Amino acid sequence: MTNFTPREIVDFIVKYADPKIGDKILDPACGSGGFLIQSFLYVNQKIIDTPCSELDRKLKFNELIDKCLWGGEADEDLHVLAKINLIMHGDGYNNIYQGDSLSNKKLPNDTFNLILTNPPFTIPYTFKDILNKYEMGQNRESQELDILFVEKCIRALDAKAGGEMYIVLPEGLLNLPYYQNFRKWLLGKCYITLSISLPEGAFIPFGKSVSKTAISCLRKKNQQGNTKPECVFLGSAQHVGHEVGKSLY
Predict the structure, then answer these.
(1) Non-local CB neighbours of 55 within 8 Å, separated by 6+ positions
(2) How far, in whole angstroms, is CA 3 from its chain's centroid?
C-alpha cells in the first residue's frame, strides 16, 4: 500500500533536492514511480545540457538508467506500473524491486546519495521477525510503517557523501508529544535541513488521505560531523498548485 503524491509536490521536492549527475536515488515506497520519473527527467536534462562529447553524454545516460534509479514497492501491480512508466519516459527500471522494502536485501544500506519518498502513513506493521531488526521496532508487537520507513531510509543513505532524504510524513510525527521519543531518536541520527508544512486536504484527490502532512529533509550524520547544515529552511505552504480538500483533482 502506498500514498500517491501530487505531481506538483513531486516536482517541488525534486527541484529543491537538485539531484546531481551520478547520484544514486532511491524511493523505497515508489508506488507508480512519480519521484523516480521526475528524478530521471531532471538528471537527464542536466546530462543533455552538459558541455561534453556525445560519447561522454551517452556514458552518463547509461549510468543513470543502469545504476542510479532504485525503487521498492510492495504492491505487485504498482511495481509493474512503475517499471512501465519509467520505460515510457525513457528507461531506468532495472533496479525497481517488488516486495517489502523493510526486509528487501536488494535495497542496500549505506549506498544512496538521495532518497525521495512518501511512505504509507500510520499503518501498523506487525511482522515481529522484521520489527526486531529495527531500533524503532525492537521489543514491540507493532510499529507504524512510516516510522520504520524513516529508519530504513537512514540506513540506506550514504553518510560519507552527506546523503539526504526528502520524505513526506504526517505532521503529528513532528509535533505531537506521543512521538517525542521518535523525534529524539531521529535527531540523534540526522540533521534537519528543511521542514515545510503542507495544507490540510492536499492529498484527498490522491488516495483520499486526509492526513495533515509535511515535507522534511533529513541529512544523515557521520562520525566526522562534517554533514551539519549551515542553515535550515522552514516554511508553511498555503497553496500547492491544485485545489486542496476536494475529491476531484
Answers:
(1) none
(2) 12
DSSP state of 177: G
The pLDDT tens digits for 109-148 are 999 999 999 999 889 999 999 999 999 999 999 999 999 9
3 neighbors 206 (Cβ within 8 angstroms): yes
Q: pLDDT band for 227, please (50, 70, 90 cuts).
A: confident
Are the C-beta atoms of 102 and 130 separated by less than 8 Å?
A: yes
Instruction: Measure the CA–CA gap between 77 and 75, rounded to whole angstroms.
Output: 6
At 223, the pLDDT band (50, 70, 90 cuts) reads confident
Please list the alpha-helical segments (H only) found in the chain. Answer: 7-17, 34-49, 54-63, 76-89, 128-131, 145-156, 172-175, 180-189
What string of DSSP letters covers 196-222?
EEPPTTTTTTTT-----EEEEEEEE--
The number of angstroms, rounded, from the C-alpha of 123 to the middle of its chain's C-alpha atoms is 17
Q: Within 10 Å of residue 172's Cβ, how many Cβ atoms?
A: 16
Q: What is the mean pLDDT of the chain?
A: 93
DSSP code, position 112: B
First-last CA distance in the chain: 21
